[in-house]
Amino acid sequence: MSLNEWVSLVLTGLGAFFFFAGTVGLLRFPDVYTRLHALTKADGLGIGLMVMGLALQATSGMVVLKLLVIWLLVMFSSATACHLVARAARRAGVQPWRRP
Amino acid sequence: MTLAVDWFDLVLAVLVPFLAWRVLATEDLFRAIVLFIVFGLLLALVWVRLQALDVALAEAAIGAGLTGALFLSALGRLQRAAHSQAAASQTVTTTVPTHQIAELVSPSSVAGTGLTLVCTAVAIALGWAVLSLPTHESGLTEQVQSALPQSGVTNPVTAVLLNFRGYDTLLEIGVLLLAVCGVWSLGRVHVERSDLQPTATSPVLQVFVQFFAPVMILVGGYLLWIGASAPGGAFQGGAVIAALAVILLLSRKDITLEQRSSWLRMTLVLGFVVFLAVALGVIGIGNRFLEYPTTWAGSLILVIETALTVSIATILAVLFASSLPPYASAESTPSVQEQHE
Questions:
Q1: Is this complex's ipTM strictly greater than 0.90?
Q2: Which of A28, B39, B88, B332 has the smallest number of Cβ neighbours within 10 A?
Q3: pTM of the predicted model, to two decimals?
Q4: Between B199, B202, B208, which is nearest A76 by CB?
């Protein structure tokens, strides 16, 4: 495999690792706010790394542009969704977890 | 490379039935709806693996997105009704009376045993039918490919949907209109004024809509245009624009889709009317019903698909809007009480 493919593999694998880490955070953290924090940040980083890894394997410049647009749209919508869920939880009266 | 793809297929084949079981077996309705949305997305991936990209786009947009939004809206209404009817000491968890269903289908009861036997027999018959299909049959691909130059488009799915089997699509859009009539005939919901949310919507959501509105209109229009030569089409483009309408309705409290608006009603029936007009109009040239003249087929299909996109977007948006209660600022006209209260 060429250097291009190796770097692409490493970046995509790192992105998958960050997705996995975000899911572990989702399962392990005590309340909705910490889970949102872990999930959104880790998923954002994960998708950025994956997009970089896939862009290295792209066949043309248009594909790279499409991947960047997808990355931008996902970042925007995941941040908005995180804010809306946290806002709804706050409105519903969910208190942040305190160390007992 | 193919080994990884085989593992991916295996994971999908295990996950999809498992998720389907979890959706039905979960007692918490909110969790079931979220699992249903995930199920829709995985099903879209299944369609991609089966190389049915148009269906995958429609499944992701309508099956996972819009249906999930409809379910969540209905759940919010159920919870609101439970809140207003429940006493202070009662709990308001939205659980399904699963114990009643479980009693019916448990193997110990006679009805349960009968149901199990019938389902097993049907499953065995379906499995035998699927396994007895020839493995490398190409189906109708050759006939479609040979007739494709006469259809006016180069995407075989669009050719089948809008030309060869245009009758089915015409009836589909009629069914969608019937669905809107059914939903609207349930009357407008009478909501207690104390239930209406007095707070403003999130400014983040409003900025989100301001940024995404032109993007989604562009994507919807692109899907409509590209449907002639690549996966896409009227349903997919209409679903994307309907999703835009859904977030618009969620982000602003002063927008409602008034049933009495004649503009709204004309937009709803536009797709059906244009399709029917083209289908009947070709009779005037001497062809049969829905038989487009070959030189005009591409343009006619584009016109029909544009009208269909507008109509489908409006229909789906109206179906979602009908599940939202009117907000405090917008509700000033008298409303009809729901029949089952």
A1: no
A2: B88
A3: 0.82
A4: B208
